[in-house]
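Intended use. Records like the one below are meant for learning the mapping from a protein sequence to its folded structure. Do not use them to infer anything beyond what is encoded.
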Amino acid sequence: MHPQFVAQEFQKLQHFSHDHPLILVEDIEIQTKEEVCSGCWENMYKSSPFYCCPNCIFYFHKKCAELPLKINCSAHRKHPLKLLAKPPPHQEKCSCYLCTKSYEGFVYYCSVCKLDFKAADAFLETITAAIHEHPLNPISGTILFVCNACGTHGSHVCFTCGEFSLIIHTDCTSLRRTIKIIRHPHRLSHIYFFQDEEEAGKRECNICHDDINLGYGSYCCADCNYFAHVNCAIDKDLL
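Structure written out for the chain above:
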């Protein structure tokens, strides 16, 4: 047992995914980047409060340990979803989001429709986003789509705007309308498509130099005719 957990009173939790009781730690932060949460598989660095097993190397963010075992999900309204410690077995070479991303951690699962959702995606609700003027509604991405905001493919939970028939990655809902990058002196604005019919089609990204399909989202500077893929413009490794 870790020395800091000896002779102290802690709130305990018996979690379905672990054999030993877990204790709630509220005033200690994990200072290394090696431990990960067994629920979301994200880093525990400086996380507090958290649950841990004093006998094993086993950690949970508090919010992950206290997830409800069954929920009704707005992205899948047909049936309740059950919390599983890991995704159920899928067919070989499955192309779903969880398999292509080699996802580890908790999922919410519909046993009737055979659908898995990352725990975070199961709680998505209607949102407002900086890059769009209308509310965006979550839906389960059971079919392949191309994100209108960034122009790349998706196959998981996404957001839609019925007013403009847009489909947007969950991650892209956090994009900003304008950004500043070190490669260009002016601010870049997000556009969903290029409106000049005479110049529509493909154009080179000024960061990676691959083609941009201007029928989908990109960042541009109208004054300088400067264009960049959304993912290039926000990727710090490319700047």
